[in-house]
Amino acid sequence: MIRNKLLGKCLQVQDGHSGGGRVSLGECSPHLSIQEWRWLPESHALSSLHTGECLTAPAEQYEGVRLQPCILRAGSQAWTCSKKGHLTLFGKGLHLSARQESTLITMLVLSSLALVLGTVILILNVYSNRKKVVCVLKSYTPRQEASVPGSPVPNERAPLTKHAMRLSHSSPTVQRGEILIEWKDGTVTPLYEG
C-alpha cells in the first residue's frame, strides 16, 4: 500500500479498471487489490498487483502518472524512496504528489474576500449614517374641524356628488373608518361587510 500521509489516502488503480489506466487517491483499505503495489528491485519500479503494470511518470512535469506495461530499466518507471518517505522519480528529482483540491482553496479565498468586503461596506455605512442630520418632527395633533352636515363620518368632509347620500335601510350605523360605496342607482353600501 502506498499512503499519502498528508491526505490520509492511498494510491490505487482508478475506478478499478485495468490496462493502461490512471491512478488516483482513495480511502485506504488493506483488503482492496487495487491499492496493492509490489516493489521490483531490479528496475526500481512499482507494479500494481491488480493489473501487473508499472507506475509510469509522464513526459511533462505536471501531467498525471499512469499505469503502463513494465519495461526493464525505463527511466520513467524507476522510483526511489527518500529518507522522508517521498517517492521520487529516480535521477529526475520529481516527486509523486497529489494535486491540491482547487475548489476548496477557491472557496476559502472567496469567502475571506466576501467577509472583508462586507466588513468594509458595514463600516462605511455606519460612518456615513453618523454624518446624516435626522429631522425630528413635532408630534401630530389633529385639528378639530366642524362636522359637515350629511357627512357619514364625524369630523370628515364628504365628497361632492350629484345625489344626496342615502344609506340603505339594512345598513348598520356608519362607524369611523368605514368605507362606503355609492352606486349609480343611488344606494350606498359599505365596502367591507362586518
Automatic annotation (TrEMBL):
Source organism superkingdom: Eukaryota
Membrane in keyword set: yes
Keywords: Membrane, Transmembrane, Transmembrane helix
InterPro entries, alphabetized: OST-beta_subunit, Ricin_B-like_lectins, Ricin_B_lectin
Regions crossing the membrane: 104-127
Transmembrane recorded as keyword: yes
Gene3D superfamilies the record matches: 2.80.10.50
Ricin B lectin domain sequence ranges: 2-102
Name under which the protein is recorded: Si:dkey-245n4.2
Organism per entry: Myripristis murdjan
